[in-house]
Amino acid sequence: MPRQAVIVFARYPEPGAVKSRLARGVGAAKASEIYEQLLRYAFGVLDDFQRLCPQTTIEVSLATADRVHDFRRRFAVPWPVVPQGEGHLGKRMAEAFERLFARGFSRVVLMGSDVCDMCAQDLSAAFRLLQSHEAVLGPARDGGFYAIGLRRPCPEIFSFSTWGSADVFQRTQHTLSRLGLSLAVLPLRTDIDRPEDLRLLERHWAFRNSLAVVVPTIGGLQSLTPWLEDLRRILWPGDTVCIVQGTTALASQEPIRTGDVIRVQSPLGRGLQLNAGARACPGEVLWFLHHDCSPGFCAAYHVRQICRDPGAALGVFRLGFSPTNRALRAVARWANWRTSLFRLPYGDQGFFCRRETFDAVGGFRAPYIMEDVDFVRACRRLGRLWVAPDVLLTSPRRYLSQGIFKTSLRNHITLFGHFLGVSNAVLYRRYYGLSHGPLGGTHALRQAHANHEIFHS
């Protein structure tokens, strides 16, 4: 099978270094944020495409060579990040094609990173058309192109020194025709260069709503700092994280916001904490995440996809464990099978939904335990359960410390008790081995939570 590759041309998003025309209208800082959103959207499209064509090599080509390390740390992409060459844009594109063809690739597509309506099917179509054509172009509304695909080096089409004009597509099309190369054209798409282009983002499912991540915990914010830093690497500009600290104190503090993190206190009980977090944070898409989970680099893109399908009421990820073994893989397979067959995931699969769905079902109605199961059953009455293609890795600490069979058995006994109508407080006491109610025995309660931090499948 012919070897094929995608190159995405990108810049490191910082004020004054990206989107100069857009910055003249909205300011350099805002333009940088918008470009980062577009860049993360492009990575989501590439992730979707690689699931369709897993044999395709993907490479990020960065315009600023001295920011390659910073770029890798900030975006955590799983693909190689390499610096572009020197010179004008055409020279850099020509060198990128020549380098990959020299490595033995027979079909190469180069794409931009500022297009708001490109999709994985555009890339699939590009490679399909390259089977019967020598070149492929994706025209942009401003007169340029958002993608170009070739089957061999063609330096002539990149020899021009100017690339910001409205005749770039026609010029390239004419040059290919003059060289006698057959050309196929992809659908027309829109890159975001001017303030008037922002109207499109306001209507787009990926850009119009910000994301709020709600994280329940019994620990302090300081203990979550490393995990929060990893989480920030996958979030988009404008997203927020709400840490909800469970407490047995009768008085609670007002929400405290520091940058993109909001800290909230709530009565102890995961359902109570999740509700408090949803009330305290902005964002029209809510993502309820446990802090022993590790989302993939495109998780925020996949969470946003719940807005793409009005018939989907609730979204979840597939479950995985890290580290793992044969028995834990069996637990994860059962959980994912149960999710597909019975539409009954658990909270450690990272629930996400539109805020209107959360409000319509009354939030999490079970205050202490089984809040996830109750929430899923309520959401299913409003629409479908959508399972994201990504795996959400979670810690197996409790399984390994208490025994996989014993832990799984206790989980399912608690589930059946919930279905039989056993009160939430009784299930809570039995699950955590407490002699007092959910708000009694502070030391014992916190110790129980430390031993059974997250309710797994």
From TrEMBL:
<keyword id="KW-0808">Transferase</keyword>
<protein>
    <submittedName>
        <fullName>RSAM/selenodomain-associated transferase 1</fullName>
    </submittedName>
</protein>
<dbReference type="GO" id="GO:0016740">
    <property type="term" value="F:transferase activity"/>
</dbReference>
<dbReference type="Pfam" id="PF09837">
    <property type="entry name" value="DUF2064"/>
</dbReference>
<dbReference type="InterPro" id="IPR029044">
    <property type="entry name" value="Nucleotide-diphossugar_trans"/>
</dbReference>
<dbReference type="InterPro" id="IPR018641">
    <property type="entry name" value="Trfase_1_rSAM/seldom-assoc"/>
</dbReference>
